[in-house]
Known about the structure:
Number of helices: 2
Oligomer: single chain
Number of domains: 1
Number of strands: 6
Strand content: 15-25%
Largest sheet: 2 strands, antiparallel
Amino acid sequence: xxxxxxxxxxxxxxxxxxxxxxxxxxxxxxxxxxxxxxxxxxxxxxxxxxxxxxxxxxxxxxxxxxxxxxxxxxxxxxxxxxxxxxxxxxxxxxxxxxxxxxx
Length: 103
């Protein structure tokens, strides 16, 4: 079981996110070990991280969509929770669309 824990601090300006680092996906061919990171840092001008719960390959697609959308946001404009929410919804949609599309 993977558990993600998070807390907002400093009136919501800082989020602390934690998760375990143990990879255990018996049906994926990845053996159980403690050397696989289950978080991604985003390549954006502010601090942001994603914690993995589930298959790494499925999460990678969502993280890529989120990272690319965040990079396209105007640099000098503030980023609000609604921006992140819409980007996450888009990432979910694109991930499910890719999974359900028959080649």
